[in-house]
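Task 17 of the worksheet. Students: predict the tertiary structure of the chain below and write it out as C-alpha cells. Keep your answer in the requested format; marks are given for formatting as well as content.
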Amino acid sequence: MNYRIIFTDIDGTLLNKDRKLSSLTKQVFQQLQNEIPVVLISSRMPQAMEHLQEELHISHQPLICYNGAQIILNGETVVSKEIPWETVSALHAFNLEQDCHISLYNDRDWYVPQYDYWAKREENNTQVSPKVKSLNSVLQEWKSAKKGAHKIMCMGEAEKIEAIEKYLFAAYKDQLHLYRSKPTYLEITNKEVSKLTAVEFLLNSHFRLSLEETIAFGDNYNDYEMLKAAGMGIAVGNARPEILEVARKITHHHTEDGVAKSLQELFGTA
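Model answer:
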C-alpha cells in the first residue's frame, strides 16, 4: 500500500522517557517531511503541541487538539466542539464533595483553581503554564460568553476520580467521552468528536486522502478508533492491551523510538 499521510499521538507514543523528541525521531521526520505530511493528534492544548511541530519542522501542517475537539488549520480553528456550560457547571458542583483537581480548557486557555501538585505536574509534562482562577469565576465568564470546555481534566485520588467517572457516565454517557488515561486522571471531551472524527475531517476536507492511505500511531484508549480504522494502525510496545489487540502492527516501546523505527522500516530510510 502506498501510504500518504501520518497521524501520531504524542504522550506515551512519540515522546521519549523525558517527554521530549529524541534525536532519531527528529532525524526521521526531517527525512520524511518533503515526502509525506505528518499531523500531531493529542489530548493536549495547542501551545503544548506547537513547540513540537517546530522541532519537527511541520508547523505548516494542521493540529488536532483535545482529542479532536479542536482542529487548527493554517492558524485558524476550523472545528470546535465544546462540552456545554451546563455540564461543566454540574461537574463542578458534584466535585465540591470529592475535592479533586479540575482543569478547564478552552482553545488556548487553561484554568486551574490553584497552582497545586496536579497543575505543576501537567505544566512540567506539557511546558505550558496555567491561569490560576477560581472555577466559579471561570464559569461566570463562560456563561456570559456562551462558552464551554474543549476538555476537562480531573486529577486526584483514584477512588475519587472513579466516583466522578461514575457520576458523569450515569448522567451524561450520551454526551461525553470519558478517558481514564491513568487511575488518577480522567479526561473529558464532547462525545461527538474523537481522534477518528478529526482524522476523517482532515482527510476529506483538506488532504483529499482515504483512511486506507493513512498511518496512525498510538498507545491509549483514545487512540482505539483511529488505529482500528487507519490503513496501517501501529501501536507502540507500551500500549494498552486493547490497543495492542486492534493494531495492525506493534513497534518498539515509546522510550525506544518506536515511531521513528517503524517509519524507517515502512519508508526504507534506515
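Marker's comment: Residues 149 and 188 are 9 Å apart (CA to CA). The first helix runs from residue 23 to 32.
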